[in-house]
Design the sequence.
C-alpha cells in the first residue's frame, strides 16, 4: 500500500516567518495559533487504515501546526504502485509517500530484507520490539539510493498463508502451487524455494482457476471473502509483516524547519504502541467475522509442519546472510524473538466440542456490572447458565438473551465459550466457594458477550 503526500501552505507568508513557527499577536493583544503546514496524503486504498495513529501523533506532537489530510485511491488499480509512487516522489510531484518494506528490495534497497526474512518477524509482538529498537534508524538511510529520504517505519499486519485450492500447512502443499504475492524479491525467493510459483496480483483478484493461494493479511481476506468462498487460513504461520516506510522528497523535506522534520520522524515512534494495539484488535475482529461467516476454514500447522517450513526456507537465509549487514540484522531480530513468548494462534471455535460431563462450573450464576466498569450500554445484571457443556448468557436488566451455545473446560483453569452466532472467547476461571471469576487471557479471543465485568455468584446449582 502506498500513501502520497502533497505539500501546501495554508497561508501565503514568507518562508522564514513560517519556518520559525512564529505566532503574532492579535489587535486585542491575544495570541494567534501558529500557521499550519498542510500535508495532503494520497492513499492507495480508501480511509486511514494504515495512518490513523501516525496522523494523530503528528497532530499531537506539532500542537496542530502540521496537519495531515488524506487523499484516497492514489494509483488505484496499479499492482506495482510502490515503484510508480517513488518515481512521483523523486520527480517532486508529491512530497511524502508510504511504501511497503517488502517492495524495496526489487528497487535496489537491500537494507530492509531482514524484516521480510521468511517466518522471522511472524507476529505483532516481535514486529513491535523490532520497530522500537535502533534497527529502523540503521535501515532507513538505504532509501537514499532511490533519491528519497526515509524518515519513519510503521507496523503492518502479519501476512499469512491463505489457501484456495489446498491447505497451506506443510512444505509439500506449496509444491506446484501458484501463490499470489506483492512484488518482493524475498517473498518470491521464499515461494520458489518451497516449490511454488509466485505471481503478482491485486489482493482482491484471486480466481481459484488461476491461483492456489496467496499471502494476505486478515482484513484483505475478510473484505474479499465473498469472492473466494471455500478457502482456508493457516492461523499460526506468518511469512512476514506488511511493515511500512515513510519517505519524503529530499528537497521539499529540506524546506521544513528542523523541528517540523523531527516531528515527522518521532511521530513514527509515538504511533507504534497504539498502532500495534489497533492491529492486534483488528486481527481478532477480522478472525471473528471470518469464523462466524463459516466460509473460510481455520487450520493451525502442527509443530512438525512448522519445523519443516523453517527447514525448507533455510536456502533463503543462506542467500540473505551472504550480506554481512543483513546477517547482523537477522541475528539481532532472532535474539529479540527469543526473549518473547510464542505468538498465540488465531482461533475459530465455532465447532467447539462441548463439555461432556458435569463440571465444577455447572449452575446458574449472576453478576452485576457497575456503570463505572461497564459503561451505560453494558451496565446491569447478568445471568450465566452452565449445564453439561451448554451455556446461556442473559442480560436480565434490561432483559435480553445474549447467546446460547456450548462451553468446555481446558487445561484445568481455562474455559472456552462458543455461541451459536460464532461469538465467544477463552477465559481463565477461578472458583472460591460460590464465587466465579472470569478473566481475559492476553492475546486470546475477546468476543461478546463480556463476562469479566465483575465476579459471578452462584444462585442455583
Sequence:
Amino acid at each position: 500500500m502506498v500513501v502520497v503526500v502533497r505539500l501546501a501552505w495554508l497561508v501565503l507568508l514568507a518562508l522564514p516567518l513560517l519556518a520559525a513557527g512564529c505566532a503574532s499577536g492579535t489587535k486585542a493583544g491575544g495570541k494567534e495559533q501558529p500557521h499550519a503546514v498542510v500535508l495532503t496524503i494520497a492513499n492507495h486504498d480508501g480511509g486511514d487504515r494504515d495512518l490513523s495513529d501516525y496522523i494523530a501523533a503528528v497532530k499531537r506532537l506539532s500542537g496542530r501546526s502540521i496537519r495531515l489530510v488524506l487523499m484516497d485511491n492514489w494509483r488505484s488499480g496499479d499492482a506495482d504502485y510502490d515503484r510508480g509512487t517513488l518515481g512521483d516522489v523523486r520527480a517532486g510531484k508529491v512530497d511524502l509517500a508510504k511504501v511497503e518494506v517488502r517492495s524495496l528490495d526489487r528497487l535496489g534497497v537491500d537494507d530492509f530484507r531482514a524484516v521480510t526474512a521468511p517466518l522471522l518477524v511472524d507476529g505483532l509482538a516481535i514486529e513491535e520490539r523490532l520497530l522500537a529498537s535502533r534497527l529502523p534508524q540503521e535501515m532507513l538511510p538505504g532509501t537514499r539510493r532511490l533519491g528519497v529520504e526515509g524518515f519513519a517505519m510503521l507496523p503492518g499486519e502479519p501476512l499469512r498463508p491463505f489457501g484456495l485450492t489446498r491447505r497451506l500447512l506443510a512444505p509439500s502443499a506449496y509444491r506446484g502451487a501458484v501463490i499470489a504475492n506483492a512484488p518482493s524479491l524475498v517473498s518470491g525467493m521464499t515461494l520458489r524455494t518451497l516449490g511454488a510459483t509466485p505471481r503478482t496480483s491485486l489482493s482482491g483478484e484471486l480466481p481459484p482457476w488461476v491461483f492456489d493461494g496467496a499471502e494476505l493479511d486478515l482484513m484483505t481476506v475478510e473484505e474479499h471473502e465473498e469472492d473466494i468462498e471455500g478457502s482456508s487460513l493457516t492461523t499460526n504461520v506468518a511469512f512476514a509483516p506488511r511493515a511500512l516506510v515513510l519517505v519524503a522528497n529530499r528537497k521539499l523535506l529540506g524546506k521544513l524547519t528542523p523541528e517540523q522534520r523531527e516531528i515527522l520522524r518521532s511521530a513514527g515512534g509515538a504511533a507504534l504502541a497504539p498502532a500495534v494495539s489497533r492491529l492486534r484488535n483488528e486481527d481478532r475482529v477480522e478472525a471473528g467475522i471470518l469464523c462466524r461467516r463459516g466460509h473460510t476454514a481455520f487450520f493451525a500447522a502442527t509443530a512438525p509442519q512448522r519445523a519443516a517450513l523453517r527447514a525448507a526456507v533455510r536456502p533463503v537465509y543462506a542467500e540473505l546472510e551472504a550480506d554481512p549487514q543483513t546477517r547482523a540484522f537477522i541475528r539481532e531480530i532472532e535474539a529479540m524473538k527469543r526473549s518473547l513468548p510464542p505468538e498465540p494462534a488465531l482461533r475459530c471455535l465455532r465447532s467447539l466440542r462441548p463439555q461432556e460431563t458435569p463440571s465444577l462450573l455447572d449452575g446458574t450464576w449472576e453478576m452485576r456490572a457497575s456503570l463505572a466498569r461497564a459503561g451505560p450500554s453494558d451496565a446491569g445484571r447478568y445471568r450465566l447458565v452452565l449445564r453439561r457443556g451448554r451455556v446461556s448468557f442473559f442480560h436480565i436488566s434490561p432483559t435480553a438473551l445474549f447467546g446460547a451455545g456450548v462451553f468446555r473446560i481446558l487445561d484445568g483453569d481455562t474455559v472456552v465459550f462458543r455461541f451459536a452466532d460464532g461469538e465467544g472467547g477463552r477465559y481463565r476461571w477461578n472458583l472460591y466457594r460460590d464465587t466465579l471469576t472470569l478473566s481475559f487471557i492476553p492475546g486470546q479471543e475477546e468476543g461478546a458477550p463480556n463476562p469479566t465485568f465483575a465476579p459471578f455468584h452462584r444462585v442455583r446449582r
